[in-house]
Amino acid sequence: MKFNIPNFQEHVILAPFTTMKVGGPARWFVTVATTKEFIHAVREALRNNVPYCVLGKGANVLISDKGFDGLMIRAKNSHYVFRDTHVTAEAGTDLTTLVMQSAQRGLAGLEFAAGIPSTLGGAVRGNAGSRESEMKNVIETVDILNAKGEQKTLTVAQCEFSYRNSRMKQQKEIVLSAVLKLERGSKDTILEKVKENFSRKHKTQELKFPSSGCIFMNPAASAAGKLIENAGLKGMRIGGAKISEIHGNFVINENNATAEDIIMLISVIKQKIRTLYRIQLHEEIQYIGFD
User: Fold this and answer.
1) In the Cβ-directed half-sphere of 6, how many Cα atoms lie within 13 Å?
2) Residue spans of beta strands (DSSP E) within the chain
3) What secondary structure, in 3-state letters, does 11-64 show?
4) Where are the domains of the chain?
5) Does the annotation mark 164 as catalytic?
6) How far apart are CA 71 and CA 174, in angstroms?
7) Is 53 in the active site?
8) Catalytic: 134?
9) pTM of the full predicted structure?
10) Class at the top of the CATH hierarchy for domain 9-75
11) Tens digits of per-residue pLDDT, 38-84?
């Protein structure tokens, strides 16, 4: 296989590019620094009939120990520009950067995203959020690349956002950039709220060991972490993987865990919660390379 892509690599171990620090090699790997490079890489994969996948910060994913038999595209296109109350940002832009830059300009709306380890693209695709708000509430338009490699601009309604979900996630479309609409507010008040949200995450979430963030979406009945805690599963280990004792919805890589360790632990959690509460938990994380 010969891609017409500058600087692509072969057999690159993916674990270092994920927050869980787990994952085997990508058959092909490229880092894209601009949206033009991003589009070209996807279209080259399509032209060669090669599976492709995108990594941003590498959170909210679990990559197989076997790796990914396709082209892994690492999104580092991170240009952004503020115009009045709007910000246009590329998919690889760090979400925390946008939170802080908005706050410094006295623009409100992104405070809820403080501490979410994601690029803008990943946050838009998964409609990332917290108890306060979610991405759909600040999005005006999203530029995507569809499964045919065609570039399109979607309105927020066309994105079909729902809890931790979107059209892009369901139809395997690539987020290239987005326009966010914020509101003017008190800079001091906004910064204080951002600080408060960062502080809460540091107190209530597992940050000492590698993890993928929350493993499960919250069911209607109760928070997934609370169900796992009530089931007495906190601290349970399989291999190098462990259910966090700080937050039940976090599985951590405590000691050189494999993806198989984590999969087995997730399976135990789902079975236990189904048996005890007749609730089916559904993963928030994306599985890569398990086909």
Assistant:
1) 6
2) 9-13, 25-32, 52-55, 61-63, 68-75, 80-83, 86-90, 107-108, 139-145, 151-155, 174-181, 183-184, 211-214, 237-238, 241-243, 250-253, 286-288
3) EEECHHHCCCCCCCEEEEEEEECCHHHHHHHHHHHHHCCCCEEEECCCCCEEEC
4) 9-75, 80-202, 206-288
5) yes
6) 14
7) no
8) no
9) 0.95
10) alpha beta
11) 999 999 999 999 999 999 999 999 999 999 999 999 999 999 999 99
Contacting residues for 124 by C-beta, under 8 A, at least 6 apart: 91, 135, 139, 142, 159, 166, 168, 175, 178
The Cα-based distances of 111 to 114, 195, 287 in angstroms read 6, 9, 29
CA distance 16 to 25: 11
* DSSP for residue 134: B
Q: Which of 43, 74, 125, 164 is catalytic?
A: 164
Task: Tell me the CATH number for domain 80-202.
Answer: 3.30.465.10
Which member of 111, 206, 214, 254 is catalytic?
Answer: 214
CATH class name, domain 206-288: alpha beta
| Residues of the chain falling short of pLDDT 70 | 1
